[in-house]
Amino acid sequence: MTKVLRKTLLSFIIGFLTIGMAAAQQPLLIPGTLSGTDITLNLQNGTYQFYQGINTTTMGANGNILGPTLVLDKGQQVNITVNNQLVDTTTIHWHGMHVSASNDGGPHTTIAPGTSWHPAFTVMDKAGTYWYHPHLHTKTNKHVSLGIAGMIIVKDEEESSLDLPRTYGVDDFPLVIQTKDFDADKQIVVPSNSDDVVMVNATIDPYLDVPAQVVRFRLLNGSSQRVFKIGLSGNNTFYQIASDGGLLSEPLALTRLQLAPGERAELLIDFTGKEGQSLQLMSYAAEFPNGIYGATNPGMMSNMTLNGYNPNPLNGANFNIITFNVGSMNNNPVTSIPAQLVTLNPIPESEATTTRQLTFTPEQMGPNQLNGKFLINGVSFNMDVINYSIPLGNTEIWVLKNQSAIAHPFHIHDVQFYVLDRNGVVPPPEEQGRKDVILVKPQETVRFIASFDDFANDSVPYMYHCHMLTHEDMGMMGQFEVVDNTTGVNNNNIEVGGVTIYPNPSMGDFLTVTSDESNLRSITIYGLTGEQLLKRQATGNNLTKIDVSTFTSGLYLIKIETEKGDVVKKVVIK
Ligand code: C2O
Ligand code: CU
Ligand code: CU
Fold it and tell me: Which residues surround ligand 3, an ion (CB under 5 A)?
């Protein structure tokens, strides 16, 4: 059979199944909202009926599945209580929001079962769609796949002044799009490359009744791995108005939009005059080139397999995500698409003072590479190693080089960035707004620019990582901290041969070792009689923090091996 014929037959069968299942369509679940200064999230184990009459084991926030949508105003203070009522340790991260690292909920900020975490911060973000999810190292995929994920809607004056739909659940809807794998007992399998069930807001085969007017949808790809190519049935036009970090400068008339794991997009669909009709939001994944999770082949070369990936009717095929049934217009409808949105202030390339190159490689080359680990600059994530120390106020260009055979959605905490180029070419308009996730295709080089203007000298680092949760959990992640060198370094710091050790005497639990002339190799601490007390590898990094909280107070010798030679000094540990 020719490939075209096979595809036609396949879509015929899928079409037939869809018609056959039409009666089983379920109304879209719309999570409730929480707003105000004090917000409580109770993380809990539960069960949920994805399939009628069958209990699936899940995790959720304030319920059995997903979590409430948090609606916040820019400039407001928010005090959050996260009660961990799960039987497992976890964390909660506010993806895309600009908060200090200790409020950020990364892998260092663990919440033990039966305990609570109390982040508190001022909302500094622009109006947009953000989200929250667990971020415990090696278990992010499990906790997200079992169900914990919620949306965050930030509002601001700039957005309020525009004629846009903004009544939640009426003309403004969250769409958390995910694929999951269910076993024969309808339990969620994690990790898995056999995610053949599509759901929106935890609803399989959903429909939504929409009014015959302009409706706003906030899309989040909350899948562990799958990339979607969003489009409407009949190739109808929709308008993208926002990317990850807020509104674009003007609505973009599109028929397709790529959405990788972690990415958000706000869309307007004009249903005016369509009363009585149905439209489908689709993923046109048949259009993906190989080398993207969701294409016919997940690797660039057809001999590259990913365990469990085939057969899966979603791969390389077009499929339905949600059906919109258009009803009558409601009160105060928005009936036109605005011409302009907001003024974006992309950072000029000339403002960058530092360039960092991050190269993605498979741990093992060859046709089996998709099943293994992926590395950033040759190393896997290490909780004890700070990969980059970024001076406060720095504007930086990060060069992402993908030397592997699969596309990786790269995400960075703390900042929103602007994409400068893809392989030297200006990105398409949908990638010209504020972003915190960018899909880097095989053999591609993507450059972005960002400024690190706040939150220096925090006690915990920020993460950057691949947002394919399987890759992240296997260590495709690194961490950075923002340092204010005018306050972070005191007078007794040891500076020799380009190496700085601070603070000396130590304060708190950590000694920090940085090098600005060459990369570090290892750090060893000896007692004054020469016995080795601690050795830490630091290959390829220019900053490492050593936990010295278990040392008794006194004088020690510290030896730092760098690529340019060794340094030995005395330090006081308090
Ligand atoms: Cu959405 Cu580091 O995460
Ligand atoms: Cu994040
Ligand atoms: Cu990846």
Answer: 408, 466, 468, 471
